[in-house]
Fold each of these.
Amino acid sequence: MLKSLYIKNIALIDEANIEFSNGLNILSGETGAGKSIVIDSLIFVLGSRADKTLIKSGETSAFAEAVFQCEENNVFQQNGYESEDDLFTVSRIMSVGGKNEIRINGRIASQSVLKQISASLVDVFGQNEQTYLLRQENHLGILDGFGDNAKLKNIVSDLSVQLDDINKQLDKFGGDDSERERLADMLSFQINEIESAELFDGEDEDLSAQRQKAKSMEKITYACSSALSLLSGENSSLDKISSALNYLVQIDNIDKKYETASQRLSSVKYELQDICETVENFLSELKFDQYEMDMIENRLDKIKLLKKKYGGSIAAVLDFCKNAKQKLDELTHSDEIISQLKEKKENILLQLYAAAKNLSLFRRETATKFENKIMTELQDLGMKNTTFAVVFSDMPQQSAFCGCGKNGFDKIEFYFSANKGEPIKPLAKIISGGEMSRFMLALKNITATIEKIPTMVFDEIDSGISGKIAEVVGCKLAKISKHYQCLVITHLPQIASMSDAHLLIEKSVTENKTKTTVTPLNFDGKLKEIGRLVGGDIGEYGQLHAKDLIQWADNYKKSL
């Protein structure tokens, strides 16, 4: 259960630390006081998407922290979080600069992990959930959530995946015979175009280097000729070194150091002569062949075209050719392969139809139980003449069956009639706001026992109801709260009187600033607030009515 919720700098709330109890927690206050801010803060800390408008005006960040008390082997422990006192803390901060940090028991956690955990902790019902319930495409999921058909759905899903795989393999063969022939011709052309080019990996890099060298021929010739002119020939470096060596040789027998210097200079002379020969060889090798240059350019253009058509590199072009050969080989032997695939497809279709039919039959049995439970709950909620039905689409004939998705071939829609003798019509087209509130409450009362989510939040579940029906809804909420913790925003005194804990949400203006506060009420505070809900400031008669309501609620809760 949710033990507490700490809120800081969210919307109109500066700071609030709210304690919740077991059973039915009522949140009430004037319209616009900020009751939904508490629920929005809870939804925020549980990992829902939120934008910066949630941050209180003038502040740099919004912060919320929820503390949960859980039994052994809970969803936190299943995700690797431990606690010695069975308390688990979830916190979240969002800043105007974009920082969004989530922590579970002090450890940083991702939003996806938090949402996975929170889905097993709190169920929130408000206008969004009513909209979800009215959409036909969601009805099948609701029915499946009521019935335990996971095993049957898995069989259908696995077979559907197998069928999709076979259809993809058949699509690779290009459909009919004429289309496969066109595909084979195209592949043959592509293979021939690539193979006739006789490419090898890295060829384009070698050719580019040759082209660059050819384009630099004049520069290389000038550089080598100039260097050779300075190194050899008349009055060159080599000439001067030779003359210097002749002088040193004349004195190398006088002292060892002269001989050493002479030998070193002799080595320089030989090295310089070798360099001269090397540069001469460079010059002798240099020749510009326009025909060869044209050949290089043409070859590079051809390679460029092939890379543009079949891949960004020669390696990719060669891989394309390899794959094309494999596809062509498959097409060449396609008749045999297609025959095998079609036979396999027929077999899968038989199995898939049987599995989807079993799933559909199970759903239809489940739907009957679901209809009865919904109508029982609605009768408890004062809708005595209600008719509710799950309407299925026609089951396809096996001869016309060509496959289905992972959910089978069923399409369903909830149909509804609130009045005896009136035909049932699609739920979304006929149900009123008050009826919708009770329908959602009935549905939640049924699914709660299946989902076993410990905390349920109802945001203005009393929309569109009043009088006797409000009493009935209050009794139903009290009944649910015997087994689950409930947080309920309400404007109705009949519902508020059933509270096990009552929180008053108030808005005030201080120093030209609007803020919202949350105050837990004692008996006198509860009495005063229910009196306000009864009829505003009407003196002692409102208080007497409030006392009667609280006494009625207490007597009902004792009878449970």
Amino acid sequence: MCGIYGEVGRGDVLKNAIDGLKALEYRGYDSAGIAFFNELQRIKVTKQKGMVASLEAKAGVDRWATRCPLSDPLDYNAVIAHTRWATHGKPASKNSHPFKQGRFVVAHNGIIENYKEFKTELENRFIFQSETDSEVIAALLEEEYSKLWDSQFTVDEFEEGFIDILTRENKDMTLEAIYNVSKKLKGAYALAILSEDVPNTIFATTNNPPLIVGSHGDATSTFVVTSDEAALPANSQIYRLKPGEIATLDDNAIKIYESTGEGVAPKGDPLFQPIQAKQQPSKDGYPHFMKKEINEIEKSLRATLESKDTEQFKRVNEFLKTADTIYLSACGTAYHACLLGKHYIEKNLGKQVVAEVASELRYMEHVGVALEGDPHKVAAIFVSQSGETADTIAAAELFKKQGAKIITITNNPNSTLANLSDEVININAGKEVAVAATKSFTSQAFAFNLLTGDTCVNCLEPFFAEAKRLQENTTQIKELVEKYKKVKNIFFIGRLADYATSKEASLKLKEISYIHSEAYQAGELKHGTIALIESKSVVCAIITDPKIKDKTMNAVYEVKARGAKTIVISPFTELKDNAVVDDFIEIRNVMHDLIPILSVIPMFNFAYYFSKQRGIDPDKPRNLAKSVTVE
């Protein structure tokens, strides 16, 4: 969700910025833009609705027209670029970043909640071109900088060495303007900023959303800022900006400044960390990343098992056994993994668990009450594939301030969420590019099982083998897609753990095929939802628990009596021949406790092929982002 890339250095930094945006495409976006200095040290902004490839073509023309000297390796230049996921204002070129007001250009990740009051105040002095909250930041910077300029210089100074003073003071005034504006903003922001008064320099700051500065690969004189390390090669050195810090990137170095309460002061040299070796994502012959990642589930589950031998894993396992209170929280797919985690903790450890969506948990009054006892005996487990989900980070920070033990289950152990946690469980699922999460969900759920159960490691081979069979069992799934391709509503039902996987199966279908789909507890159908069932409805029941198999089947009878077509996913083969079951997907030879983790795999494939059948790109569904970094 929104990506920032900026670079200052020698060579073709414009091309590097475009390549950086391409590496961030997986996050999801609807438009893109780029800003760079031309030969007159004025900033040229180029923006385009649609894909980065369209921006690349347009920027190439603009670069030639402005005679931008980026092709000369001896010249320094600074560039900032952005991929936008629309919040305020529809997807359109005019609403794309970066935004220019006066001498300032800004690329922004986040949401400014109080922008309207500033926009109303500034409209008599600035012409706003967009419908966004972000453009206001550029205007505020210009306004604040102008005030500092007027108070800083006298008429005499214009006559006596003004250029020398200008060179010395502009950077400091820009830092002060950024600091002053940041105090006014409410909401979330990560900013990359250019100023025509400070050529070939990038300013960067954040109040929470991820923002990284560092050196680009082997080039020690080329410096970058980005919202995601995925945009950088493996041999880069990075520093994650802390809230309130301001970084400057120029032709000499990266410098970090911090708040003093009255302004900013140099913090000292940042402690850079190397990016671990990684491979650029490749489809490896698959038509889409999503299908590739579904077919990597078995491999990812095996990799997640490796976390069981880590010291962090052992410490978390022991703490959960003694904790008085356990909270689980996440968003989207990761929240569904929490619902499975709640099932495993309550079943295997006998603990009562609160599982709540992070965007709700952070505002719930009962949280403070629960932590009034001994917060050190509260386990707060937060789950995020990227570790950069804004709501999840905010909820974790709330619990951390109260003294709870913060535990993160993530696919990115170097993320913002991981860095604020006491313990980190790395699911080791490997790079996940498709917006719709698949292998990360099964690995997150498996991590919960490993953390809480007495799983026989030597007994897991059938589990891995069945995961592999299900991920590759496409013939039956394609037949189901062809059979049900004209339906407009598909419902999923289940109980307990099966309700968690029903929610995940439903989410996958709706987010990548745009079919209306909902998940319900099987026992709740007759309390209202059954009114939606008609002859054209399809109902998929997930039934993996022998204790409540017959209870869930009662719901299948009920929907069948009202004309629905039924699909059952289950290890109980006797259901296959039941007259009310139209289609049966079997799960074979797996320990009962692990079956729920596998039950959703067929529906991952179902969603994938349904999306393809409808001519939709399953990797990049509309309106969605891989990493949701705004509230």
Amino acid sequence: MENFVVSARKYRPATFDTVVGQEHITTTLRNAIRTNHLAQAFLFCGPRGVGKTTCARILAKTINCQNLTPDIEACDECDSCVSFKQNASFNIHELDAASNNSVEDIRNLIDQVRYPPQSGQYKIYIIDEVHMLSQAAFNAFLKTLEEPPSYAIFILATTEKHKILPTILSRCQIFDFNRIQPKDIADHLGHIAQKEEISVEYDALELIAQKADGGLRDALSMFDLNVTFSTDRTLRYKEVLDNLHILDYDYYFRLTDALLEGNLTQTLLTLDEILRKGFDAHQFVVGLSRHFRDLLVCKDSATVQLLQVTETVKAKYLAQSANAPMSFLLSALSIGGQGDMNYKQAKDQRLHVELCLMKLANLRHVLNWDAMPELPLNGSSGGATIAAADLSTVAVPAAAEKKNDNGHAVASPTPAPAPPTGYTSEPVNGYAAGKPAVVVADQVVASNVVSATVAVAERPVMEKPVIQRPASSRLRSTVSLSSKPQVAEQQQVEQQSLSNSRPDKPFGFEQLQQTWHAFAQLRKQQFDSMSEALIFNREITLDGTTVHIALDNNIQANLMVDLKPELLAYLRDQLQNKQIQVEHRVVVPDTKKMIYTPQDRFNYLAAKNPALLDLRNALNLDVDF
């Protein structure tokens, strides 16, 4: 039986023409050979499986070829090419730096460099995974790399250029290899399938190319795997999808349609179907965020090129992005990012993902994009630029005219819209119901990112709507903190004016104690701090309207300074007396010294009876230890 050779080795490029997706590298190397401008050292760097070592071998073979073709390709017929194909060339040496990274290995290599080639023009040394060399090995290699013999050429290959010493980099001509585009990989796999007489669906090849993430070697390995999986030597999209355990694009499109409709029921059922098929919930969250990103770049024809998918899938993205408002996509990206970051810390990870989907499904009702004009991705449509609405449509009332002192008509300022008192909740199936809703976190990301443009003459400047958050909510908003909401300022002014006009009521010590303990319980429920408990358990005294408290140390005093504004506001509000003051002082408790030694006992007795000290001095006595 004939031995099986994997496709990555069987179809390894042997000429510059057969290298996939690296035309900028092959063109430069050909021109260097044609004009005899070969550098003394090359450094090939880039991701794995993109052709670094392959190009190094092709370059080494082509340099020593005795009969170059007009296209600057090796002839594969001369003695040098034949010996290279048989791995018997004395002019080409390949070293794996991952396993030969010591100083001794580099010194052996330097010793070989001293001898000129017996046949051919150059001796080529290919050092793969060069970043694995030790610091001492790099230093030993420096001088030879800077001033090699005229017949020696070094080709270094690495996936981690940042680990190589700058002194090495400065002595090399650096070539950066790119990730291979999915279309190039799929076309290459199609040619191999044709040679192997394998029937394929092009969508299956595109799926393999996407999974390979720019590495042709990985794509060839997956190609061999799926060919082995198939019983009739036919690659089908569904079989490749199941064999590689890839979550199909259709799930993301179905889920996004349900989210745009606000249909939470279908959303949760789709998530359950995905999890029952064995897919990781974290990868699902990452993939969904990536899906929203791809929909976002489809919003503008200039950014569609950033979408690295097949033409069939691209058409689906363009169709769905037309139905997805910009505000939804930006808010969904924010929620997806938070879900990704907090997934590892969640105790119930499935519930964490479901909560993210609940927020996304409720965005339709929170953002109210049915009444909001769609904003372009580039933010420009002529005219002056204004900030986009935060959550819902901002109505623009007609500007009322009034006359100034000179008699000219001027537009009166547009009154700010009334703040929403709460959002109306919708049931999970998307139908209306008159129940209060939970405000979705991070729903106003779009307000700081997207800007719309309108002509100044046609539309006056719009006021931002005021967004009220629940008093007990600890969720942080992405709304700018540069200015306070007008309603909050108005309420604060009203409360202050009311408290100033209210007469002070007298209160007793028992009322003070009850209010003091009530504030302590409130702080305990919120923070449960042992230090605060020690302070509030201290004894207090009342002198008129001034509360006195004695503390043990400066740490308690500093904590009391921080608590005092909130404590005073609470006491004055509950006792209805704005004259209340709280004063504290630090009282260090007296500590009795314990008597341990005979000297301590003598000192204690002498303090009680000074005559005992006079007797000791008169008789010149010592304490018996």
